[in-house]
Amino acid sequence: MSDATALVERMAREARQGARLLGQAHGEAKNRALGIMADTLLARRETLKTENARDLAAAEQNGLGAALIDRLRLTDRGIDDMAEGLRQVAALPDPVGEVTGLAPRPNGMLVGRMRMPLGVIGIIYESRPNVTADATALCIKSGNGVILRGGSEAWHSNRAIAAALAQGLEAGGLPRQAMQFIDTTDRAAVGALLRCDRFVDVIIPRGGKGLITRVMAETRIPVIKHLDGNCHLYIDREADLAMADELVFNGKMQRPGVCNALETLLIHARVAPAFLPEIAQRLSSAGCELRGCPRTRELLKGAAPVTEATVEDWDTEYLAPILAIRVVDGLDQALEHIEAHSSRHTEVIVTRDHRRAMRFLREVDSAAVMVNASSRFNDGFQFGLGAEMGISTDKLHVRGPVGLEGLTSQKWVVLGDGQIRR
Amino acid sequence: MSDATALVERMAREARQGARLLGQAHGEAKNRALGIMADTLLARRETLKTENARDLAAAEQNGLGAALIDRLRLTDRGIDDMAEGLRQVAALPDPVGEVTGLAPRPNGMLVGRMRMPLGVIGIIYESRPNVTADATALCIKSGNGVILRGGSEAWHSNRAIAAALAQGLEAGGLPRQAMQFIDTTDRAAVGALLRCDRFVDVIIPRGGKGLITRVMAETRIPVIKHLDGNCHLYIDREADLAMADELVFNGKMQRPGVCNALETLLIHARVAPAFLPEIAQRLSSAGCELRGCPRTRELLKGAAPVTEATVEDWDTEYLAPILAIRVVDGLDQALEHIEAHSSRHTEVIVTRDHRRAMRFLREVDSAAVMVNASSRFNDGFQFGLGAEMGISTDKLHVRGPVGLEGLTSQKWVVLGDGQIRR
């Protein structure tokens, strides 16, 4: 057994023990600890910035791009936001212990369900260092032990944040071992965590497709994951075109690099001539590249530059200011396109017609299906979850934004007075 | 690609297409089809019995035990029960399309969740031929496509039942391809199904531990499974001992071969002397073998035969009239024992004390946790689900009895009037 494997197994075993205690903690205790964790982060502001500077220096030395370095940077504002995030999670209702559906069976015993933590959650992330605090807050609040494995480029920052959080957790009277930060850069540690099915109940990878694919290939532990966000908006033949214009522009351009941004516009042939030239000019002027089907290109002649959309375009999550456009003959064709190409993340219909709105809602099988609203709303904060661990494109357990409820499940509880089975 | 792989891929692709149509069928259409499926089974009673006779003859020739042959036999009563089961599932409320929690966000858009089928469910089973009908009914009602792979010993029976069901499904106006029976005995077909992650959304293995272990090892598709049923009953120091006697006897002896039967009795040292001799005599007289800790053996001297419980006994699901008994010093020790040895299936406390009842309910992390009721109640029918696909010992998605709800998940729905994100 390698050093990394032994280390990770020891951590996972400790996390399991810690999780058992944490799962029984009252909401008050968890909220107090989250507050102290926030205080500790703020109190160590200078240390966090010093450690972050080491990551930034290494990133520059290794020639990381400006965007990546920007994501890595811990500003004063970023540190304030992490602390505020911890307090916001503390303010959310405690999901653990909630009993629902408790009702009598014919023999008099009461049967219902009680919400419980999942146990130990392994989080493997590549993203900004603030994930260390955000993910820990959600795990602690939902009563789960957490094992964190951050990216090597944010190594010193993540480690400093985790140390502050762990100290806050302990100062708040909760078991420190419920939170484990894998403090080795040995890459074997990831594999060890993925094999640790004895102590880890779920793995949540947060990062690019390469990471997700690796996790899927290497683990037997259940995974809550986000794959692609190839999101569609369909403009029906009866639609408020001014509204459609706003929804397309907002969906594509408000933040093109995120998973709930639009990638493909589908539009009914009847309204395409009136609609496409105007939105195309608006998007082009804002720096958006357009790729269209033959009918789209015909309609946009002289209006805006548009290249030919290839088969790959329909399957691509651009994560960039690029929009694919296809003219369709009606809802059926739009639904077929979505069925064939969607990544089941977010789909939108713009329509005035109630019946087609209801059909779209029922028939589209994506994590979020919307009528007359921007795809950008598929987000835990926007949906009112208070916070999120990411957006699941899985079908089992949890779809869409993963909030506190997604980090729990329900066991059955039975209250009897001696019932036996005949 | 082998023949079996090509066959299974074609079936899975068809099941996916059928599932898309089935998922949109109204409850009325599904219920009518289930009724016709029941009629078709009854109309083919003689064919089913003839085909079953071929399986029985082969089983006898292959020297299968009397118990196995008994499980294999399709009696008139068994055929009636299958048909009645289909009608019972038809009578249950349709889970698909239910919208919950629809409420406005501050910007006026309504956000809620809609229950949807999982998609295509692969069922690999070794059990009695009636599983073919029971599992299909639940999948159809929940709007899921189903791919069935039964055991070779029930090959002719399963095939005849599946043919009757498929014909009834089609006669009821629903897509026949939503139901696929893998009609080859080629063992490679199981592997092919387990690799078919493009078209299959979840695998449900129903059978012995060997099957479950194989499925877990070979697939990347999410699995809903039942591992062990190592169930415990703890008798608190303040308990109604007459009630405890009934609950222990019922839990162990009402049907010793099933997963929700008791395997280990934990008893507080204070009440053990008054309780153990009597229940031990009752169990022994009924043919139950006892294996005890040293304190148990001391207390049972002269009362009933009891062998020494080894470490393995605490971890064993006997599925037989054998009970392990351990005297403990209190609730903490009982909880530790359960944490260390339980398979997280069903745990029971017998107590008059409210506080310890609540502690047990909260702290035991099993699919079902009961106060003063028989472990034998952990069952979909007993809990009021109307039917079940089995009992999940997983933590994610669904714990305990898997009914119609366990075969669905929820997507987010958003009803807006042009909301964009700022």
Quick recap:
Two copies of one chain form a homodimer. With 422 residues, chain A is of the alpha/beta class.
CATH superfamily of the largest domain in chain A: Aldehyde Dehydrogenase, Chain A, domain 1
Q: Treating each run of at least 4 consecutive H or I residues as one helix, how many helices of chain A?
A: 15
N- to C-terminal distance of chain A = 52 Å
Q: Which structural class best describes the helix and strand composition of chain A?
A: alpha/beta
Shape of chain A: globular
The CATH architecture of the largest domain in chain A comes to 3-Layer(aba) Sandwich
Radius of gyration of chain A: 24 Å
Q: How are the strands ordered across the major sheet of chain A?
A: 10-9-11-8-7-12-13
Query: What is the number of domains of chain A?
Result: 2
Poorly predicted regions of chain A are: none
How is the biggest beta sheet of chain A arranged?
7 strands, parallel
CATH class category of the largest domain in chain A: Alpha Beta
Description:
The structure is a homodimer of 422-residue chains. With 422 residues, chain A is an alpha/beta fold. Chain A folds into 2 domains: 3-224 and 402-414, Aldehyde Dehydrogenase, Chain A, domain 1 (3-Layer(aba) Sandwich), CATH 3.40.605.10; 231-382, Aldehyde Dehydrogenase, Chain A, domain 2. Chain A contains 15 helices and 16 strands. Chain A has helices at 3-22, 27-43, 45-61, 66-72, 76-91, 130-141, 155-171, 188-194, 209-218, 241-253, 272-285, 294-299, 311-314, 331-341, 354-363; strands at residues 99-104, 110-117, 120-125, 145-149, 179-181, 202-206, 231-235, 262-268, 289-292, 307-308, 322-328, 346-350, 368-373, 391-392, 400-401, 408-419. In chain A, the strands form 4 sheets. Chain A has a 7-stranded parallel sheet. A 4-stranded parallel sheet of chain A has the order 5-4-3-6, with helices on both faces. A 3-stranded antiparallel sheet of chain A has the order 1-2-16, with no helix packed on it. In chain A, α6 links the parallel β3 and β4. In chain A, α1 packs across α8 and α6 (130-141) runs parallel beside α7 (155-171). The radius of gyration of chain A is 24 Å and the shape is globular. The relative contact order of chain A is 0.13. The model of chain A has no long low-confidence stretch (mean pLDDT 96). The interface between A and B is large, with 66 and 66 residues.
